[in-house]
Give the backbone structure.
Amino acid sequence: MMQSWFVKYVLPFLAISSLGFSSYHVLHSEPSVEKLTPPAKPARSAYTNTVAAAGLVEARSENFAIGAAIPGIVLEVYVPSSEVGKFVKKGTPLFRVDDRHLKAQLQMQEANLKAAQAQLAKLEAMPRSEEVPPAEAKVGAALANLRLTKDQAERARALALRQATSQEEFYQKQMNLEMGKYQWEQANADLELLKAGAWQPDKAVSRAAVELAQAQIEQTRTEIERAAVRAPIDGHVLQVSVRPGEYVAAQSGQALVLMGDLSVHHVRVDVDEHDIPRFQPGAAARAFLRGQTQRELKLSFVRVEEYVTPKKSLTGDNTERVDTRVLQVIYAVETKDQPIYIGQQLDVFIETSISTRWAGDA
């Protein structure tokens, strides 16, 4: 009897009490959740209909990624990283790759040029005035010898007719006369050749050697000039990623120096391909810096990049891609009363007369 009463009344009471205690414990031990406010209010558009996009600040001239024209060890950096932000004029040296071997080669080529020029000058100055009198004297001697052998030959002929001399002596005098004629003709020909100066083809070969030496010098000077990397525009140095002693390649794909014209800040806005039908070129736009949504930046339309390109992830790595394609629109920042840095991200709102609902219905 006692056992049935315990089972019938006590056990259910204990179960209900345990359940009530558990519920009370769960309800009162749960930590209270406070509503947290965001550290910064999200950016909001001031337009009724808007196209929202992300923008990246860049220089007016776009960002110039400057590399080295020739590979080698960097000898000097004229604008070190400590002077980032410095304004430089077009043509200002930024850094120089090792060109000592080129300068040594230039000295050798300049010596070769002097030798080729001297050889050409020698050919053009021919004949030497000192060489003509000896040649004329040889002609005179040959003529005198010719007259002598001619007289001897005539005397030998007269004696031969009277049979007063031998045939052998007669023929010897005749051969001497023939030899004298050839010697005189040779002396005359040598004199004419000397007076004619150098042969024109020899001069042409010498002129070509001079031109070749000059071309080699110009080529080496160009290589020396290419070793000095200069500013391509008037602008500010935004980043320097090269140090003296480092090896740089001609096609490394790395921007050794980054430059840009900061007279006006531009914003490259990526309009999503789904929003392109609602975008209207020339429309007004406003932007907000990330983390500073209280003050808006006024933008003015510059141009539209006509090519719809795959979207780049805004992490700084230009090899990252996503599936979305975007239309890039360039705006100029008109607000000047707050600092803006190249590469800074913006939330951009572009005014449009086409609502999202209307565009979807279309």
User: Anything to note?
Assistant: The chain has a mean pLDDT of 82.
